[in-house]
Each structure stands twice: as C-alpha cells, then as structure tokens.
Amino acid sequence: MNIRLAVLVIFSVPFFTSSANAQAFSFSETKTVIGMTGTHTVEKNESLIEIARKFGLGFNEITAANPAVDPFIPGAETAITLPTSWILPDVESRSGIVINLSEMRLYYFLKKNGSDLAMTFPIGIGTEGNDTPEGIFSVAEKIEKPSWHVPESILKEKPDLPRVVPPGPDNPLGSHALRLSRGDILIHGTNRPYGVGRRVSHGCIRLYPEHISQVFRLVTNGTKVTIVKQPVKVGKRDGRIYLEVHKDKSMKINFFDEAVGLLRKKNLYEDIDKEKMLSALRAKQGIPVDISR
Length: 293
Hints:
The chain is of the alpha+beta class.
C-alpha cells in the first residue's frame, strides 16, 4: 500500500472532533465580507484534511487556498493559508439557510438583539449525475437519530446493503437530519467526515458531526432553505471591494464576464483595480481578494 492510499484509509473514519463552535458574524448591506483569512503552521503528522476540520473548513476550500501544498503530506512546519473569510451569497433575502453549491458552504442567517448575524459551515454535496438541486425549499422535518432508508438507486449499486440502516456509527446520515420540502433531499451529518468539501453524496447535503448538531438546534420546521450556484461573489467591507472566485467545474461560464457583470450591477466596476481582478480570476483560490483601486 502506498503512502497516499494509506492516508486515505486512515481518514475514512472520524478521527477527531473540532472543539470550536461556529462563530456568528455581523453583517450589513455595506459589510458583506465576514471572517478573516488566517494562517497555520503544520504540525508533525498533520494533513490538510485534519486542519480543515479543525478550523471549520471543507477539503475543497483548504486545497484551493493552498494549491502548492500536498494535502496528505504537507510537511511539518509548512505555513498554510486558512480561508476563513467569505463573501455572503447574493440572494434576495438573507434569512434562514442559504447554500452555495459552488463553494460547498452553508450559511445560516439570524437576528439577535437587533443585529443581523451569519453563521457558516462547510458541506459535502451531490456527485455529478446526482447533483444537489438548486431552488427555494423549506425544512419539513427535523429528525434525531435518523434511520437511513436506502434508496433503490443505491441498492442497485450496492445490493448487499440492508433496506434500512438503523441509527449508529454505520449510519451515513449521522446523528441528526433535516428533511427538506423536496422529500428526497436531506441536510444531515455523516459517519465519513472526510467527505465534507467534496462531491460525494447522492444529492443530499452533508455536514461535519459537530456542525449538524448546531444547525439542528438553530433551525425550526418551516425554515427557508435557498440553494444557489455562485462561483463568483462580490462584496464590500470597510469601503473596500472584494472578489471571491471558486473553481466549479459543473458550471460552463466565462468567469471574467461573470465578475464584470456583478461589479457593474453593484456599480463598483469603476472603483476596482483591473489587474487585481484578473489575478483573483486566474487564481480561483476561493478567498475574498481586495480588488479596490
């Protein structure tokens, strides 16, 4: 067995639990960039998979932000970028749950003491051919310790599976699930946390075990769920203009035209540095980049 395969096998089971709960960030119409990009020095025997979970990131985010680093054997003392800042998705109403498939991230919007707050969590989504649907839905049912009723499509692929998998460590739904108004789509936990930040499901949305329990407590039946694809996002903070670009191979778009269109729509195009914009578009590192003039 080669080293890479050995690492993959090791991480095919839960390996630790993040101690930090997701932070609630304040936002406004003039402040749509939340969080701050950070750095981390790799410790002995750490991989980017472990580091991602530790800091509430998905595999896609940490590898895109560190394209020159081997995700499985990054090397002790390597300095890596933590993409722990985000531009809020551009939706008609920032309320309830908003999921941006292009960045594999879930946002939960709430109000507290008159302030608008946003919490955010990395997710795993559907594979090609089993794409997680876009649209506006709602939470129809909250389920603790869900049983997994194996879909016929999966039974055809894996006929040795039982028709129902009871709650427990072998259940791929994890400890909690939210059934959406489109009944075949769930937001749920997982017994394979290494799949967060990847296209791995049959259409459902997976969260880390420690995150699904948080989201489950926060939402109520009827909570609005908006699912979009936005590989390019534009935002503002402290009077500066930011551009965030994600590699979304499922979308055949011209990223330059998309960015310029968004900037013009927000009347920001004349206030940017064009070279900075082009650099962010080329890199596609999924990090808000200041492109202000």
